[in-house]
Design brief:
Elements lengths: L8 H6 L5 H6 L4 H6 L2 H18 L4 H12 L8
Helix pairs in contact: 4-5
């Protein structure tokens, strides 16, 4: 039996580029992201929090738009 090492969360985070150009070119595992419902379960609360920080209030239409674009696998530059 072959043992497969699973990377730690810290290793996964360290592998994500931090500069805008490389970050926007980073390949995402869309089948996994959509299957795990990450846009709704993980990103919607985070996006809502960021919008409140920027605008001072929750904007459900804006949150829904961004989550919808994520589900459509939008290009980051188009957002």
């Amino acid at each position: 039996m072959v043992s497969v090492r699973v990377p730690t969360l810290q290793e996964l985070v360290a592998a994500i580029p931090t500069d805008k150009e490389n970050l926007f070119q980073y390949e995402l595992d869309w089948p996994y992201i959509l299957h795990a419902n990450i846009p709704e379960e993980k990103l919607r609360p985070w996006i809502g929090k960021k919008i409140v920080e920027m605008l001072g209030e929750e904007e459900e239409d804006m949150i829904s738009f961004i989550v919808g674009e994520m589900k459509r696998k939008c290009d980051p530059k188009s957002l």
